[in-house]
Prior knowledge:
Layout: H1 2-11, E1 22-23, E2 39-40, E3 67-73, E4 81-86, E5 94-104, H2 106-112, E6 122-123, E7 128-135, H3 141-146, E8 152-155, H4 176-185, E9 195-196, E10 203-206, E11 215-219, E12 223-225, H5 232-235, H6 241-252, E13 261-264, H7 268-279, E14 285-289, H8 292-300, E15 305-308, H9 314-321, E16 327-332, H10 337-345, E17 347-355, H11 369-374, E18 378-381, H12 387-399, H13 405-408, E19 409-414, H14 418-426, E20 433-437
Parallel strand pairs: 6-10, 13-14, 13-16, 14-15, 16-17, 17-18, 19-20
Antiparallel strand pairs: 1-2, 3-4, 3-6, 5-7, 5-11, 5-20, 7-8, 8-12, 9-10
Amino acid sequence: MASAIVRNAIGKNTRGFSFKLPTSWCMSKLLSRHSAIDKPVGEDVTHKVPKGVSFHSIGGGGGLPSYMRAAVFWEPNKPLTIEEFRIPRPKTGEILIRTKGCGVCHSDLHVMKGEIPFSSPCVVGHEITGEVVEHGPLTDSKTIERLPIGSRVVGAFIMPCGNCSFCSKGHDDLCEAFFAYNRAKGTLYDGETRLFLRDNGKPVFMYSMGGLAEYCVVPANALSVLPDSLPYTESAILGCAVFTAYGAMAHAAEVRPGDSVAVIGVGGVGSSCLQIARAFGASDIIAVDVQDEKLQKAKTFGATHIVNAAQEDPIEKIIEITGGKGVDIAVEALGRPQTFSQCTQSVKDGGKAVMIGLAQSGAVGEVDINRLVRRKIKVIGSYGGRARQDLPKIIRLAETGVFNLTQAVSRKYNFEEAGKAYQDLNQGSIVSRAVIEIK
């Protein structure tokens, strides 16, 4: 029975979702004579922009083009399309980035499937690397000195305002402006988007910075310098997959050397949790999933034990591995009611169950109240890290090789294959993390 429950929890697409993502172009009046080409993403679409068409520089913009491409989500279960936009312009305290890499994350997929409400149309993509190309007017000198033009940077998906009551206490992960404006309205913190379609100037909302684009605007507080020794493409996952894992393990779980840890769901974020747990000195590190390929890969990330939840009861197996006690810390990285329950039942007396997987809107997890009370079980949610204090540490872990970026990124796609990347993610065919290269 338990195996069947877990198989449903981890191994099925919700609601029989079919995910076919063609690409189309929103062409300018200059190119209006060229009809949009509706072709599946992943096929060669480079011919859609006629050769010889050049972009114009913006006055005072340092030779920036006037237009760019970005991937747009229009409405649930509709094709993701690549459209042309006017180059976004940063405001005070913001930075314009020429995007180099953008990670493929389930959070975007939840939005695209209509499982999490978000303003639309919007540009998705929220874990990015890139190059600083412009500062917003009146940006303070310290920010410009920290992030000069030409800097290589990583962007965190939680973009702290730096001024609210939570940010002032160092709790960037609870930033009031981020949740009130970006997550609630799809804008930056003046209540306005920075994205406008090229042909008609209509506004398009931003999921985080709207990173699946050739350029994006990011609040400076969300950016950290990327060392030359780290690659643009693989490093994109530092801004969400690793950032989320670090926040969970450092602040919610508070992993200590010798702790036993179980991670339920070892995709991009879950496998990052394994690496962070190992870096923090955890002893038994148990990976739980239903795909043998992911479980075998989990061993390279630090898992000392693997459990295929399609073949055996994960709760019983975790308790067996830990000598009948359960783990000090269990992490749920899927966002399913069934795995929520498995997570809470896998921890020892006094243990912590940490929830990091986003669920379909309205999903509810159940917990045994008497056990929670009598055995002092702690259930805590964690959305991500704290950009200003954690992102530089995460980058340092990658720079020193403590976190293995090369192993963590299993697939790469080009920009024209953005839709195919999310289709593959939806089908469960991506092991670890995928990144879209934007050149």
